[in-house]
Every structure is written in structure tokens, then in C-alpha cells.
Design goal:
With 366 residues, the protein is mostly helical. It has one domain. It has eleven helices and no strands. Helix 7 (108-158) runs antiparallel to helix 10. The chain is elongated. The two termini are 35 Å apart. Residues 1-26 and 262-277 have low confidence and may be disordered.
Length: 366
């Protein structure tokens, strides 16, 4: 009679615990509100991800080669402008050199100043547009981070990492929002000031070169300091919290297995099945977060990289033809673009790290 009771209790537990857990993977996406992560993305990013069969709740059919092709197609149309401007800069350098050689030596400085102003006309508009786009992308990355962190933290909690999920969510959200705000309110304005100083110092003897160099170093070291502190604290905190969560989960499974014969074992198995389901969701959402973040800020980095390559070549031509004023201007513009890439990648790195934590932390129920 006792064995019959145990049999019915076992059937009850298998019915009401194991079967719902097997279907948990399909239900977890709705419970975690992954739609909010999708809604926070810009339309251009959504279009690229949809073309690659990438969504937060559907990464099984995702195609990375298709994603790379769609990303390159979105960027390739905007790479014509840097090369067109580069050809004009080379022509301007050659023309200025010819005028200087055939003109009076007293006009040497005047020719270089005129060439610098002509080059500034070619460069101010596209570089200013890149600065504005960088500011917009930082705002978008901040919004995506705000929408994704609760989802990521919820998945960590469901996978048995309650301590990791809570501490990770608070740290990443606060630090990411702080770096985004500092970038938009402080670092980008400093970049604009540095851009203006680069134009002025290339044609003037005013002692602004040291100030411009100090601005460049300040932005660089602020970014390095912020990212280093964030990654260091997050790595140490995640490591310690994960070990605590793993120990607590193992203790809970041992208690559940030994407290009640048969039923405790079924409950322990149900936790393992839940861990498998959450692990699949965790991998899918984590991979989507990584690719979505890259899709947001990688196009601007590629455009800025194209401008850097073109202006570096133009600066080399200016040095070769002994046009120092033009060389100083182009070198300053290259530094501005490098600052933009550094600022954008710093904010993007936080979004990447936030998603990568999901892929690195294994389930405590496994």
C-alpha cells in the first residue's frame, strides 16, 4: 500500500513539475519580456537583424555570414564620400604645392593658410556629422542597455544565480548609464573643442597646441580609467557571486534529493531540466545581445575608420610635398576621429560585456 502511494506521488510530481519545465523554454521569452529589448533597437538595426534571421526568441536559424553581408551592404553605400573627399584633398595639396612653387616665396604662408581653409571646408561637415551620429548612437546604446539589463539579470536569476544577477544588473546598469552620460555631456564636447583647436593651431602661432594635446590625453585616459575600473569590478564581482550561487544551488539540490525519498529526486531532476531550458534561452539572448550591439555601433566605427585611412594618406602626401600646415590639420582630424571611435567603442564595450556575461556564466542547476 505504501509503494502505491509513492507511485501516485511520483506521477503527480512528474506531471506538475517536469512537463511544465520541459515547455519552459518557449514560455521564458515571454516572461522575461525580451520584446522590450527588440523594441529598443533602431529600425536600421532591426532590418539588418531580420535579414539575418536574428531575434531575441529565435536564434536557431541565425546566419552570421548573412549578418556580415547585410552589415557590409549597409556601410558600403556610405564609404563613397570618404574616398571622394580624399581625392579632392590630394588634388588640393598638389594645387597648393604648384601655386607655392610658381609664386613668390613671400606667399608661402598665405598659400598654406588658404589650402587649410579649403581643406577645412571639405572636412568640417562630414566630421561634424560623425560627431552627431556618435552622440545619437551613444543614446541608442544607453537605451538598449537599459532595456536589456533587466532581461539579462532575470535570466541569470532563473539559471540559479540570484546573487550574480542582482549585483551584475545594478553594477552594469549604473556604470553603463554613467559612462554614456559622461561621454555625451563631457567627452564629445571636448572632442568638438579639440577639433576647433586643431583647425586653428594648424594656421596660427597661438599657443593652443599644448591645450589641444592635453584635451586629447584627458579624453583618452578618462576612457581607459572608466573601462578598466568597470571590467575589473565586474569580473571580480561576477566570479565571487557565481561561486556563491553554485554552492547554494548544489546545497539546495542535495537537500531536495535527500529530504523526501523519490519525490526529492524528481524535484532535483526538474531543476536540472529547468537549468537546461534556461541555458538555451541564456545562450540565445546572449548571442543576440552581442550581435545587436555590434550592429548598432560597428557601422559608424567602420565609417570613421575609412575617414582615418583617407586622411592619414592625405597627411602623408602633405608631408611628402612639404605642406606642414595641411599636414597638421589632417593629423588633428585623424585624432578627432580616433577619439570618436574610442568614445563609441567604450560605451559599446559595456553593452558587449553585459551580453557576454550570459554566455560565460554557466547554469547553477546544470
Amino acid at each position: 500500500m505504501r509503494s502505491i502511494h509513492c507511485f501516485f506521488v511520483l506521477v503527480f510530481c512528474l506531471t506538475f513539475f517536469c512537463f511544465p519545465v520541459q515547455a519552459a523554454e518557449a514560455d521564458l521569452y515571454g516572461q522575461l519580456d525580451t520584446e522590450s529589448l527588440w523594441d529598443a533597437l533602431p529600425e536600421e538595426t532591426k532590418s539588418i537583424l531580420l535579414d539575418s534571421n536574428m531575434q531575441p526568441d529565435s536564434m536557431q536559424d541565425a546566419s552570421v555570414p548573412t549578418w556580415l553581408s547585410a552589415l557590409s551592404g549597409a556601410v558600403s553605400d556610405e564609404l563613397y564620400a570618404p574616398f571622394k573627399t580624399g581625392a579632392r584633398l590630394i588634388a588640393l595639396i598638389l594645387l597648393a604645392r604648384i601655386i607655392r612653387d610658381f609664386g613668390d616665396g613671400s606667399l608661402n604662408h598665405a598659400v598654406q593658410v588658404g589650402a587649410v581653409f579649403a581643406a577645412a571646408v571639405l572636412l568640417v561637415k562630414p566630421i561634424s556629422a560623425l560627431i552627431e551620429q556618435t552622440e545619437q548612437m551613444i543614446g541608442i546604446l544607453s537605451a538598449v542597455l537599459t532595456a536589456s539589463i533587466p532581461v539579462y539579470a532575470g535570466i541569470l536569476v532563473l539559471s540559479g544565480h540570484a546573487v550574480t544577477g542582482s549585483t551584475y544588473g545594478a553594477l552594469t546598469l549604473s556604470w553603463g548609464s554613467g559612462i554614456a552620460a559622461v561621454s555625451r555631456q563631457l567627452l564629445l564636447p571636448l572632442t568638438r573643442i579639440y577639433f576647433v583647436f586643431s583647425i586653428v593651431t594648424s594656421v596660427s602661432d597661438i599657443g593652443l597646441k599644448q591645450i589641444a594635446d592635453a584635451l586629447y590625453r584627458s579624453v583618452k585616459w578618462l576612457l581607459i580609467l572608466g573601462i578598466t575600473i568597470f571590467t575589473g569590478i565586474l569580473s571580480l564581482q561576477t566570479l565571487l557571486s557565481a561561486q556563491t550561487d553554485l554552492a547554494a544551488a548544489k546545497a539546495a539540490k542535495m537537500v531536495a534529493s535527500g529530504a523526501v525519498p523519490i519525490v526529492g529526486g524528481a524535484f532535483s531532476d526538474a531543476l536540472s531540466i529547468l537549468g537546461t531550458s534556461v541555458g538555451l534561452v541564456k545562450s540565445g539572448v546572449g548571442a543576440f545581445g552581442l550581435l545587436a550591439s555590434l550592429t548598432i555601433f560597428l557601422p559608424i566605427c567602420l565609417k570613421a575608420g575609412a575617414w582615418i585611412a583617407i586622411q592619414t594618406a592625405a597627411a602623408f602626401a602633405a608631408d611628402l610635398l612639404e605642406m606642414p600646415c595641411l599636414s597638421d590639420l589632417l593629423t588633428g582630424c585623424v585624432s578627432v576621429l580616433k577619439m570618436l571611435i574610442a568614445v563609441l567603442c567604450s560605451v559599446g564595450l559595456i553593452s558587449l560585456v553585459a551580453a557576454a556575461v550570459l554566455l560565460c556564466v554557466r547554469s547553477a542547476y546544470g
